[in-house]
Predict the structure.
Amino acid sequence: MYIVNGTEACTYEVLQRQLAALTGEYPFLEVFSIGKSVLKKELFCVRWGRGEKRVFVNGAHHGMEWITSLLLLRMLETFAFQYNNHTCIGSVSFDRLYDDITLVICPMVNPDGVNLQICGLNESFPPLLKTRLTAWNSDKTDFRKWQANINGVDLNHNYDAGFQKGVFMQHQLGIYGPAPTRYSGPSPESEPESKAVADFTRSFRPHLVAAYHTQGKEIFYDFDKKATEQAEKIAHELADISGYTVKETDGMASFSGYKDWVISEFRIPAFTIEAGLGENPLPLSQFNAMYEDNIGMLLHLVKA
């Protein structure tokens, strides 16, 4: 029986409960915060392993994509269970893997946006913030299609990688300020969430990163033709494992994302993985299939 069973939407409070349950069962998991959101929610990370190779994986840059938080927690639970029981998946020994890698997972980059998308406006919001959010949401109080953080900034367009080109394309879409999606913000890393992720990346110095999104069953590995041959090779191996498709971004999706910034800044393999199929937010009925598609990919990423 899994602790992370995928039976309820992953609000920030559910994330906290899941982390407490996982660390209670597996005390070798180290939970720490890399910063706070606009509304002062902790940006939790979990560390597994003690090896020299460093891998950083994150999810839920976007409010509607909270199912990626559950997916990362379930895969983390698999790693913890296998290590705790000294078992293997195929030829992978988790005892050996624990000594070889340090895996850090940030399951929810955008807790404010996630809670707004799932719960909507409630009594905890100050009246002025309620007014602003409603205005940014085209005067609608239905926030089920909300992707941005609580400042109306799309966190996965708030990194310093072709930022101005992204702003130009944002303007082509008629977006000039805070909005449910696609607004890049006033400058790169203007938001505490994206700045915390970037600062942690700079200090952790990973050898490989992956950012989990939904949907499309797609794998993206390049930015501005700067990806390494190793990254291209890994991307196609991931596709073979999962049945996902290796793709190239186009339009505004080509600029100012986390994966783009990592490639540009560090020249290491970096991937955006678009899990599942359908219309965001994906239903929990897809959760188990998403896990089956992705656990092999994560194992390959940490070994690559």
Observations:
- Residues 13 and 28 are 22 Å apart (CA to CA).
